[in-house]
Design goal:
The complex is a heterodimer of chains A (about 110) and B (about 270). Chain A is α/β, with parallel strands linked by helices and about 110 residues long. Chain A has helices at about 20-25, 40, 55-70, 90-105, and strands at about 5-10, 30-35, 50. Chain A has one domain (about 5-105). Chain A has a 3-stranded parallel β-sheet with strand order 1-2-3, with helices on both faces. In chain A, strand 2, helix 2 and strand 3 (about 50) form a beta-alpha-beta unit. The longest helix of chain A is centred in the middle third of the chain and has 16 residues, at about 55-70. Chain B has 2 domains: about 1-170, Rossmann fold (3-Layer(aba) Sandwich), CATH 3.40.50; about 190-260. Chain B is built from 9 helices and 8 strands. Classes of the chains: A alpha/beta (about 110), B alpha/beta (about 270).
Chain lengths: ~110, ~270
C-alpha cells in the first residue's frame, strides 16, 4: 500500500505519536495529517500537510489541491525517503536516553 | 514511557524483561530494546527480551502465558533489573502491599531497590488503567514521554508538573521496509489511510472529506482492524462511502498490512 500510494492520510482525533506518518515519509509519500498528532511529527518534514482535526472542508481542500497537482503531472510522490534519517534514528534516541538517565543521577 | 532509577547499574547479571503493550513500536519493545542498547555501550549487561506483543492479536490466552513465562523467568534469574508493562508493575506493587498488610512481610514480590523500567500506553482513558498507571507514576523518579501529546496528557490527567516530564521521541526502524520506488505516471491520486476503524482514528472524517471534494481523480484505500466494540461505526462508514471511490480492507485479510504489523511487533527471544 505504501509503495502503491501517492499520499498517506492520518485523520486521527487522537494520536500519541503517529508512526504511520514516518512510514509514509520513508516511502516517499506526501503526508496529510490532522493537527491532533504531536508537533514533533507534524514539523518533521516539509512534505507533511496538517489540517484542523475534524475539519472536513479543510481536509477536502488539501486533497483537492493534491488531486489537481496529480492531474497536472506535478510530483507528489518521491522515489526516495523524505525523513531525516539521523533525527529519527534509534542511535539518536539511545544517546539522548543514556545522557538523560546518567546526567540526572537519581539517588 | 516511565522510567525509574533507584540504583546505579552494576556489573551483575541484569535481566530485562519487556512485556510490550499495545504500541510496541512507539511505546514498547523498540523503546526497551534501544534503552538497553544505550546502556550496553557503557555497562556489562546480559539481556533477555520477551515481549508479549503478539498477544494483542490473539487476545488474552497468549498474553497471559507470555507474562507467566516472563514472571517465572525473572524469578528464576533473581533479576535485579526488571522491565515490565506498567499494568503488571502496579499489580506487583499492590500485591506486595497486600501481603505486608496480611502479615507476610517476608514475601517480596517487587523490590524497590532495583532499576526499573515501565512502559505504558499513553492513551489511558479507562478508569482501571488510570488507577494502575497512577501507582507507577507516584513511584517514578524519572518520567519520559514519547511525544508532546503524551506529555500534555500526563500533565492534564495526572497533575504532574510540566518540567517533571521530558520528551524523547523514539526512532524509526526502516530495515524491513521496501525501498521507495519510481514515480507514477497516472493522473489518478492514490490515497492510503492506514488506520483502525475507530472513531478516535477519524476514519469518518476522511470519508466525509471525500464526499466534500470537488475532484474525482482519486482512489482511496483504507486498511485497518475492525474493532469489536465499534462494529456499528464500521458499518456506518461503509454505508456512507457507498458511492465513493473508497475501498475498505481488514488488515487480517491483507498480507501487506499483516507484514506491516509484523515489522512493528518484532519478537526478541534471545540475548542481544
Amino acid at each position: 500500500m505504501y509503495i502503491d500510494s501517492d499520499i498517506i492520510v492520518i485523520p486521527s482525533r487522537f494520536e500519541s505519536f503517529g508512526i504511520s506518518v514516518l512510514e509514509g515519509l520513508w516511502h516517499g509519500c506526501t503526508v496529510v495529517c490532522s493537527d491532533a498528532l504531536p508537533k514533533e511529527i507534524r514539523n518533521s518534514s516539509c512534505h507533511i500537510h496538517s489540517f484542523e482535526s475534524e475539519n472536513i472542508s479543510d481536509l477536502a481542500s488539501i486533497l483537492d489541491k493534491m488531486a489537481i497537482k496529480k492531474y497536472n503531472g506535478d510530483i507528489i510522490r518521491f522515489p526516495y525517503p523524505l525523513i531525516d534519517a539521523e533525527k529519527w534514528s534509534w542511535n539518536r534516541f539511545q544517546n539522548e536516553i543514556y545522557e538523560f538517565i546518567i546526567n540526572r543521577k537519581i539517588a | 514511557m516511565l522510567l525509574e532509577k533507584h540504583d546505579q547499574c552494576n556489573n551483575r547479571k541484569i535481566l530485562f524483561i519487556a512485556t510490550g503493550n499495545s504500541e510496541p513500536m512507539t511505546g514498547g519493545i523498540y523503546y526497551i530494546k534501544n534503552i538497553l542498547s544505550a546502556f550496553q555501550k557503557k555497562l556489562s549487561i546480559e539481556l533477555l527480551l520477551w515481549p508479549n506483543s503478539f498477544g494483542q492479536f490473539e487476545r488474552w490466552i497468549p498474553f497471559i502465558f507470555a507474562n507467566l513465562k516472563i514472571i517465572t523467568t525473572a524469578l528464576k534469574a533473581k533479576s535485579p533489573f526488571i522491565v515490565y508493562d506498567s499494568r503488571f508493575y502496579a499489580v506487583f506493587v499492590y500485591l506486595s502491599w497486600l501481603l505486608k498488610l496480611l502479615g507476610f512481610a517476608s514475601i517480596t514480590i517487587y523490590q524497590g531497590s532495583h532499576l526499573r523500567l515501565a512502559v505504558h500506553e499513553s492513551c489511558l482513558k479507562k478508569f482501571l488503567r488510570r488507577i494502575l498507571l497512577s501507582s507507577t507514576l507516584r513511584q517514578s523518579k524519572l518520567i519520559i514521554a514519547n511525544s508532546s501529546i503524551t506529555h500534555s496528557e500526563l500533565v492534564s490527567d495526572f497533575g504532574l508538573a510540566e518540567d517533571s516530564i521530558s520528551v524523547i521521541p523514539p526512532g524509526f526502524q526502516s530495515d524491513n521496509w521496501t525501498q521507495p520506488s519510481g514515480l507514477f505516471n497516472s493522473t489518478v491520486l492514490k490515497i492510503f489511510v492506514p488506520s483502525r476503524y475507530q472513531w478516535v482514528k477519524g476514519v469518518d472524517v476522511i470519508v466525509n472529506a471525500i464526499h466534500a471534494m470537488k475532484c474525482r481523480n482519486i482512489i482511496v484505500r483504507i486498511v485497518g482492524a475492525k474493532q469489536d466494540n465499534e462494529l456499528d461505526y464500521y458499518a456506518d462508514l461503509k454505508r456512507s462511502a457507498k458511492d465513493l471511490p473508497i475501498e475498505f480492507f481488514d488488515y487480517k485479510n491483507h498480507e501487506e498490512m499483516k507484514n506491516v504489523y509484523r515489522f512493528r511487533y518484532h519478537c526478541y527471544s534471545k540475548p542481544i
